[in-house]
């Protein structure tokens, strides 16, 4: 389609622990399956060997107000942010064309948090939560078919 509508921020919905997050600034995530060259006789590689699949670390940046709402979750209040059970993060991309895409980050755990922009002229207070996850499932095509 020429001059069609591309994804923008209003097309993205982020659910964390079954709750839709509203005040989200950004999210980043990815996965990988490495490869290594295999050498035999001679100077050039003879082939390659695949390594194990790995979900990369991710980050979500929230406005402080969204972070405070997230802390109202009963499990977080009882166990603390770093001790909650593994959870899913669902990222949905929907332009309203009847063809939504969904990425599901499975078995997530929080590993780090940082409080940003805490200064007199700071535009907005944000909290960055780093997380790890075991796998990424996408409805367009899984990178790894088991």
Explain what this protein looks like in three dimensions:
- It is a single chain.
- Strands 1, 2, 3, 6, 7, 8, 9 and 10 form an eight-stranded antiparallel beta sheet that branches. Strands 4-5 form a two-stranded antiparallel sheet.
- With 146 residues, it is mainly β.
- The protein has two helices and ten strands, in the order E-E-E-E-E-E-H-H-E-E-E-E.
- The longest helix is centred in the middle third of the chain and has 7 residues, at 64-70.
- The protein starts with 11 loop residues before the first strand and ends in an 8-residue tail after the last strand.
- It has one domain (9-138): Pnp Oxidase, Chain A.
- Strand 7 and strand 8 form a beta hairpin.
- It is globular, with a radius of gyration of 19 Å.
- The protein is 9% helix and 50% strand.
- The protein has helices spanning 64-70, 74-79; strands at residues 12-16, 19-21, 24-28, 31-39, 45-55, 58-63, 87-93, 101-116, 126-132, 135-138.
- The mean pLDDT is 85.
């Amino acid at each position: 389609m020429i001059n069609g509508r591309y994804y923008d921020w209003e097309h993205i919905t982020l659910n964390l622990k079954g709750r839709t997050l509203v005040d989200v600034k950004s999210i980043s995530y990815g996965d990988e399956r490495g490869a290594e060259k295999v050498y035999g006789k001679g100077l050039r590689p003879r082939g390659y060997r695949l390594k194990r699949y790995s979900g990369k670390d991710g980050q979500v940046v929230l406005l402080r107000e969204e972070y405070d709402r997230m802390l109202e979750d009963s499990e977080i209040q009882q166990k603390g942010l770093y001790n909650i059970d593994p959870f899913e993060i669902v990222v949905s991309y929907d332009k309203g064309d009847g063809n939504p895409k969904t990425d599901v980050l499975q078995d997530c755990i929080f590993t780090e948090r940082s409080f940003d922009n805490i200064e007199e002229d700071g535009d907005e207070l944000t909290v960055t939560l780093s997380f790890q996850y075991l796998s990424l499932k996408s409805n367009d095509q899984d990178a790894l078919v088991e």
